[in-house]
Amino acid sequence: MNADEAVRERMSSRLWRQAGALALAALLCGLLLGGLSAWFLGSVALAGLSAAAYTFNYHVPGALIRLFAIGRTAARYGERLIGHKAALVDQTRHRIALFDAMAAAPATRAVGWQLADQARLADYLDDVEDVDFTRLRSTFPAGLLAVGLAVVSLATLFVAPLALVPIAGLVGLAAAATRRCARHGVSLLSQIRAEDSVAAGAVGAILDSAVPLRAEGRWPRLCWDALQGFSRADLSLKDLRHHQALPDALASTLGPVAAASTIAAAWLDGARSGDLLISVFVAFSWLALGETAQGVSRIAVAALRAHAARSAIARWTESAPSSAEPTEAPAEPSRLHGRALQRVAPDGRPLKQPLALDLQVGRPTILVGASGAGKTSLLKQIAGWIGDDALQGDDTALTASERRSFAMVCLHDAAILADTVRANLFAPSAPDDELWAALEAMELGGRIRDAGGLDGWIAQGMLSLGEAQRLNLARAWLSAKPLILLDEPTEHLDAEQARRLIARLLDRLRGKIVVIASHRHIAMEGVIELPLD
Amino acid sequence: MGGDPALWSIVALPPLIVAGALAGYAAERCQASAETRVSIGLRALSGERLQALPATLLTSLPAGALTIALHRHPQAVARLVVGHRAAVAMTAGGPLLAAAALASVSWPSALLVLLLTPVMIVFFALVGGAMQARAAEQERSFRQLAGQFADRIRALPTILANDALAIEADKLSGRMNTYAERTMGVLRLAFVNAGLIDFFASLSIAMLAVFLGLGHLGLATLPGFARLELWQSLFILMIAPEFFAPFRRLSEQYHAKAEGLAAAEALDRLLDPVRSPARPVDVIAVDLDLPSRGLVVITGPSGAGKSTLLRRLAGLDGVTDAAEKVDHPTNCVWIAIDCLVVGRSLAEAICADIPPPTSERLCAMAQRLGLLDDGLLPGGLAAPIVPGGANLSGGQRLRIAVARALLSDRTIIADEPTAKLDAVAARTIRLALHEAAAHRLVLVASHDPELIALADRRVHLQGGCDLEGTA
Lengths: 533, 471
Description:
Helix content of chain A: 55-70%
Largest interface: A-B, 129 and 136 residues
Strand order of the largest sheet of chain A: 6-9-10-3-11
Strand order of the largest sheet of chain B: 2-3-4-1-5
Strand content of chain B: 5-15%
CATH topology of the largest domain in chain B: ABC transporter transmembrane region fold
Helix content of chain B: 55-70%
CATH class of the largest domain in chain A: Mainly Alpha
Order of helices and strands of chain A: HHHHHHHHHHHEEEHEEHEEHHHEHEHEE
Distance between the termini of chain A: 46 Å
Shape of chain A: elongated
Number of domains of chain A: 2
Oligomer: heterodimer
Distance between the termini of chain B: 89 Å
Number of strands of chain B: 5
CATH architecture of the largest domain in chain A: Up-down Bundle
CATH architecture of the largest domain in chain B: Up-down Bundle
Largest sheet of chain A: 5 strands, parallel
């Protein structure tokens, strides 16, 4: 994966260099095309007045005009194509990095998962796009505009220096307006982001509680309030676009104003007919540059968006610990014990009294206790998902991250991936008959055959809670890990079926350390009950 | 002469530039305002549609997709009906204006660019049709990709629990590459389209420049190109690109169009009121003349329609038969695991939308339901609650809902109030509901035998009843 990453990175920077070069070529071709055509017309017009008409070599300038015209088109579309390709390569890279970062974030293991709602996730996807397209939307156009301004201003300085006064004035004005727009933009954009995320959360919450809210008559008001949040964000967006109108209007006058000023300044300087041709050339270059200056506020806003998006993404990528997974796994333990384990809550608070723990292969331990007793937290702590205390293995102490690499956790709210049954069993190396054996043992064989076999596509909504639970137990059945932690494995199953399945599962897992958290009493031979107060 | 028009154009230039900038400024602002108005209006309309959907149907809608729909789709549709339409109108009017300006100086040059128009329109039709199809496909594949990404993020704890992160990341990466390739396909076509228009623009300008140049040299006597003043040819050279610019701008709008159409379609699909709402089958001919007080428990095996009956009795699911309603719907308070938790503290969450109780009653109630000495929710009544109640367990949510219901004096409707609770908490809630039933109606759906035993009246639903289909 790292080699892939390096290849992608090299490819992306090569593509960006090509795109930058093409963009520059397109700009120069555009400037020269505008200038040369005008100069050509002017000089043929002058030649036409004299006998030089018959000797005027119009082939060379004519050919150059065609060259620049074709060059501009080719370079412009080449730049777009390559630039978009580079941005897409970056996007793939960054989305995977974001996925990895989210996976590595401690919150993912500690407290269920907060990002489950699609709306906020869509925001993150947009953020990645904002960051990756910022070169195309902001950096390149801004750079080209700066280069173009510098080149054409320099030319103007030699041809008609006086013209630089109104031009500099206009550019200064447009820059000031853009800055003002950007200043408003920063606060408006953060307002929009905040409003949108609050509203998205509110809509998600009321949809989850639609039935009670409807019954109590609270729905219309809450729904209206939530939608108002989106609409307030829309109004802020309108404000931003209104602010954008001024710099855009100023920038749109740059071409004509600069062109007119150049010719007027040259004229005032006393240039006539033939001497005026060069200034006509520069004037038409200004007109061509004017096209690049269109929509200057969009450049600024794209930069602001990218900035906001970057800091939103950084929340994930920076908080993620650099993968500290042990490189060489210690030997698989047959016993895991601690004399006084300080239990912790998911947020890191110490919880109740320290606990003596002794987990052994072949002697499944059942954590029993009322809801809220911290069974799940203890299970996650044993798995190394929360807390950072060591537990004693066979002969060495095992840190949390070492235990993580040993543990298979069967979460009580485990999800079904929208994928094939095979992918959902998470046993890529197991042969088909072993997968089927696991499904049959968990009494899912018939159901899966009906759904299209191992390669049938399933999703969360297609299985009942009980079926999802049994699929989850089949994952534990197939797991190759030495430490299996089952959270509420009997939930959603009727008592008789639960007893059958757990007995079979425990028999299968006899060679492993097994810990079960349950609020139901599980009567089974050879298990140790560990009551949590 | 010719000095006159040149002079005129010099005099007219500054006001024209200013007028152009002002018009652009006004147009931009108007477009922003109009798009916002459309977007907000459309969202309000969507809100009304939501209101009209029966609650059961509402809960069956995918919440994430619906949130995105309410957030972004109105914006996308507004861009289509305002921004895109403006670009279309410009494509109709802009070139004609430019041609008219050209004709005022030299009609053959206007004719030349007009002659190129049909060629461009043919290309527009040819490439545009293919592109629209591909853009729509890309839009679909983006949604698919976003859906898959969302699914994997949702399932991240499960993926980690099964040590499958590397596999899933590889899979995602493969899918994203496919998406990137598909996107490049659309972009290539789009850029070919814009590039062709650009090419024709360049071609026509080069032809014009050559004709005009030959005319100036006196080497050709094409009618309309010969004996032009220099300012006239420069004017033609300046205006001709404007003839093609609107076409190019429209061709770059393909994305707004595809997105807008997809958004409109998705909004329609989600909020269509005629889409067969799960009409409750009229099978429960239980003439429930419910008492004004007492504990009424609806029992039956899971799938028998207990929840459905509760909803119907509360007047939800579009059944407006007044006889079946428990009082007025706003006069009830609901207890279920999916109750909304609002407010920033435990006290605010308990008192949401009920007449504020005295602090002693509130404190006593919270104490009684074990909300004050919960190790996982420290801080007593001031315990902070994050938006959406994400830091609460199912049992805590349920107990908050019970406290709220008991503190109000309304009819209580409860759906499985003792599920997901340990024995002690369940007993507390059973007793509290039983007590409340002395003064008001408490209507419960439950399969908890101890709660059923406390009931003043039982309604037993048979299993296999066809109500199941509506649940």
